[in-house]
Every structure is written in C-alpha cells, then in structure tokens.
Amino acid sequence: MRSRLALLLIAALLALTGCAGAGTLGSGEQTLVIAIVSNPQMEDAIALSHEFERDNPGISLKFVQLPENQARAKITASTATGGGEFDVVMISNYETKQWAANGWLENLQPYLDPAYDADDFIPSIRESLSYQGSMYAVPFYGESSFLAYRKDLFEQAGLTMPEHPTWQQIAEFAARLDDDEKGIAGICLRGKPGWGESLAPFNTVANTFGARWFDENWNAQLTSPEFRAAAEFYVNLVREHGEVGASSSGFSECGTAYGQGQAAMWYDATVMAGTNEDPASSKVVGKSGYVAAPVERTPSSGWLYTWALAMPKVTEHKDAAWRFMRWMTSKEFVREVGTTFGWNRVPPGCRRSTYDIPEYQQAAHAYAAATLEGIDRAQQRNTMLHPVPYPGIQFVGIPEFQDLGTRVSQQLSAAIAGQISVDEALRQSQEYAESVGQSYRETR
Prior knowledge:
Largest sheet: 6 strands, mixed
CATH superfamily of the largest domain: Periplasmic binding protein-like II
CATH class of the largest domain: Alpha Beta
Number of helices: 18
Number of domains: 2
CATH architecture of the largest domain: 3-Layer(aba) Sandwich
Strand content: 5-15%
C-alpha cells in the first residue's frame, strides 16, 4: 500500500515538474541530459564540461541545474516513474541503496575498469553507494561535518577553541562573539526547511543529545526529553546568536555569510572549507580553524554524506552516460580542477589519492586531516547513544523521510522564525512521525 501511494504522489509531482526528454538525437549526436544540484563544486564541473565534449566527439551535454530541494524532488519523480528525462542524475547515499533495491538504477560494477581505480574511494563512502556488493553510484565529493571558526576573532576575544568542543562550549563562544554593531553573528546554522537542509545539522545535534526519531519498535520519539532538549538548544542558539534570516538560511546562505565575515563560527559540511579558503569567494581566507563536530553525550557527532552520479535504469545512452560519469569522478578530473581553479576547489572526501597530491596537501593543510577524521568516525556507533531501526546519521534512511523530514523541518523553521513554540513544533512533528512508524509496525 505504501509503495502504491508513494508512486501516485511521485507521479503527481512529475506532472508538476514538467521535465524535458533526455538523450536527444540530432545529426547522429547524443545529447546527455544531466540533473545536477546547484553548488560551487558542480559549477566547476559544468565550467570544465567543454573539455569532455572536446575529447568525446558526438556527445554533447545538457545540464539541468537546480537548488537542492527542487533537484531532489525532480530527480526522484523522474527516476521512480521511469520517465527517462535524465541520462545521469546526481543523488546521495540516502537514495542509492533504496533505489538500487527498487531496480531504478543501473549497476555500475561492470563499468569499473582497473584504470578508473574504484578501490581508491574512501571505504565508507564507497560502501554507502553500494548495494549487495556492487556500486550503483560513484562519488563526486564526500563529506562529514565540522566546525569552522574565525581564529582572529577568537584571539581578539581571548578565547581558545578545543579540538573536540562540546555544544555547550559552542553556545558560550557564540554569546561572547555575537556583535550586532559589526554585523557579526556568533554562529551560522541552517534553518531553511528541507530534510537535506536544516535537518542535516540538526539531526547531528539530536543524535549527540541522545535523541532518535524512532525506537527499535518504530515508536516515534520526537516528543521525548532528549529530542526536546536538542530542539530547544538548536532553536535557541540560532535565534539568539545566529545569522539574520536564519529560518531561510541553508548551506549556500551560511557559506556566503561566513565567507563575507558575517559569522564567527559555522557548523556544516566539511566541503565548506574549500569555499572558505577560496579568494574568489571568501574574504576570510587563512583566518579559519577547523575542529570536529561538537558533541554532548556521544564521542563524535559528524555526519556521512556524498553527492554522487548515478544512471537511471531506463537511460538509453548507457555507454555515453558512463563516459561522462567516469570523467567527472576520476583522478584526472581532480587534477584538472586543481590546476584550473585552485586546489581549494578540488572535490574532497572521495579519493584517498587526492590527499597524496602535494599541491592539495599545501592548500588544504588547515582542514584535510579534520575532513578525513570526520568521515572515518561517522558511524552510528560513534554518533548515536541508543540503537535505531533505520540506517543514516543526518537522515532516516527510509523512503518516507523525504516527506516526513521536510514536514518536521518546516515546523522547526517556524520555531526559529518565532511563529510557533518548540513544543508546538514537536507535537505536530510527532504526529507526522507516528503515522510513519505505525506503517512499519504493521509490516513487522
């Protein structure tokens, strides 16, 4: 029943998105339509795509570039219904295993030739994109989460950042560094609705506070003392010491604020460091330190995530699609980005070999080790206090979470905006979660 309802909802969503057809043929040329998430790393790939077209005559590329929330909806709708709108799609480790199990994705294992060196991928990243021993997506970049902080502002305030801070320490630092007159927020935290937006950092806070979405019997836990404590802490911190317009700020908005010197700290994806240290986009190059994701009751709290490329099963131009995927996730692409745009712009967190490149070691010395440590430690046994019946750290790895997580994030965003109380937000969120949990209890 759930699957039928999900497909009906996805079909309705697909009708709204109005996707154009993929794999257009003209004068013998194959046009690959590639659905991609809009962020700086993807922009670099698009900027270099003419080199792929030059080296692969007869294949032209058409990118459909969308903000994260829109991209997820459009890609999910197309792939789930077999619409064939896209030849290559950008998805994450949240979708990969589920979609592979559903038969929606092409098995990439036969394409992984020795020269591509899939064994070079960081093991946790590779495993997160594999199903029954085969890779169904290849990573463009991988990440955990950590905290960036302005070393100069800390020094001026007489503060010292620990290598492994607690959230209580971070709240105290934020209060000390908040400076309305200079337009500097104590910390930047996402408040923008979306299961892949504000819920990504918030869920790591919830985990380390001992909270969970469901207990082992699929009973919803969003009004538990631990979940309430985490929500109150997060909402109060961002309301009192966060960025202006926090309820509509996501990764991109926080990146801009921090890079323009408008925040003393920023907790988010480790991939942020490349942007922070890029003179083309940041005014705070060389001024940041990077430390492990803050904790409360667990030894670590960082997430594990990767943006990756996959091939929908219905893609007609499989060989051409793989050529592009191989190019964009190769060792050679890493070097091309580094030499063209600067080594801080290199897609991080995927290939071990990237961290052996001398130029990258020099450019990323402030954050490379912290990135790898975060990815290596991002396991449920390190980041969660209690057992859970679902996979995932910053997400609940079930199909319903796209809708459930977004609904809950909307409630938390309303609390950040001051429109409702945290208790009101959690009561409504609990109702959403209970209906999902009940469906799983009924099928046990």
